[in-house]
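FIELD: query
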Amino acid sequence: MEDKTIARFPKGTLDRIKTILRDGESQADFMREAVELELRRREGPPVGGPDRT
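FIELD: result
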């Protein structure tokens, strides 16, 4: 069974998202894409720097 937990965002975040949606894009589409990009970034090869090895 899928987890149906809903994320809570700081006040105003969803309004900010609404203002930048592309034609035909839903908030859910935006969030799915944002999560997928972040997952790829974190799962990818480590990036050197003071906080990442």
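FIELD: remark
The chain has two helices and no strands.
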